[in-house]
Amino acid sequence: MGAPMARNLAAAGFAVRGWNRTSSRVSRVEGLAPAASVSEACRGAEFVVSMLADDAAVNGLTYEAGGILESLSPGAVHIGMSTVSVATTERLERAHAEKGFGYIAAPVFGRPEAAEKKLLWITPGGPDALLARAAQLFAAMGQGVFPMGTAAQASLAKLAGNFLIAATIESLGEAFVLAEKGGLAPARLQEFLSNTLFASPIVKGYGTRIVKQEWTPPGFTLRLGLKDVRLVLAAAEGFGAPMPLAELVQDRLETAIDRGRGEIDFAGLATVIREEAGLGA
């Protein structure tokens, strides 16, 4: 995700330095100046944009020696675009404020192909003045921006949205199994659903993958999907919000990963549904 986002920033005229643990990924990005370290990438920058896999990666890169928090310049703003827990976002916002830096949580909706085409939906949260400063960056990376209040609320919006994506995959998997068991071609049902009452990128994209049993290459893996659903359930527990469907999806994901499918596409959640119906993965 980070590579096409950085490429689009550079194409929009921003001077972009990039760092990745795998340096070859940076060197392949057109318009990006490779940095030898996090500190070098941050030095003198007005904005630092991070796009990382999980809470552990975000915390490590932010708080470690030579990390983002040590390397920001006075008045700089850190834009965290990763999907992380509400608690992690709250801590990040406090830590940056204590050192006089700005922090915006700006998670995105969209798979890598959407990032390539500048079609991400961005749901930022933070002080209005900081969001205004970052508006041109968001415009360079996405097709629309929907502010969500505080940084913590932006992270919560992302978790709520990812829960709905997971729940939709679960529902599609069940619906197609029902169709197949009854002799109705899932592809015909998908054609109807995705072009009428349920015309959405999620139903069209994931529904097509499920019908075709197209689990690779992954745009978003089951392992990352499980990470997100666990974050959803942690938030739900903290707020006292029962989420039985999220618990079911978590069980499905854990089963799929136990069966060695952690690196297939998120649509592969449907493999467990198919197996329970006696249809095979």
Q: How would you sum up this structure, described in words?
A:
With 281 residues, the chain is mainly alpha-helical. It has 2 domains: 2-149, NAD(P)-binding Rossmann-like Domain (Rossmann fold), CATH 3.40.50.720; 155-276, N-(1-d-carboxylethyl)-l-norvaline Dehydrogenase, domain 2, CATH 1.10.1040.10. Helix content is 57%, strand content 10%. The chain has 14 helices and 8 strands. It has helices spanning 2-11, 23-27, 38-42, 55-63, 68-71, 86-98, 112-116, 128-141, 151-181, 186-195, 201-212, 222-239, 244-258, 269-276; strands at residues 16-18, 32-34, 47-50, 77-80, 102-105, 108-109, 120-122, 142-145. The strands form 3 sheets. Strands 3-4-5 form a 3-stranded parallel sheet, sandwiched between helices. Helix 2 links the parallel strand 1 and strand 2 (32-34). Helix 9 (151-181) packs across helix 11 (201-212), helix 9 (151-181) packs across helix 12 (222-239) and helix 13 (244-258) crosses helix 14. The longest helix has 31 residues, at 151-181. It is elongated and about 65 Å long. The chain starts with a helix and ends in a 5-residue tail after the last helix. The mean pLDDT is 96.
Shape-level CATH architecture of the largest domain: 3-Layer(aba) Sandwich
Amino- and carboxy-terminal Cα gap: 28 Å
Number of strands: 8
**Rg of Cα set:** 20 Å
CATH superfamily descriptor of the largest domain = NAD(P)-binding Rossmann-like Domain
- The share of residues in extended strands comes to 5-15%
Q: Helical region count? A: 14
Strand order of the largest sheet: 3-4-5
Tell me the number of structural domains. 2
Helices and strands, in order, run as HEHEHEHHEHEEHEHEHHHHHH
Level of helix content?
55-70%
Contiguous low-pLDDT stretches (5 residues minimum) are none
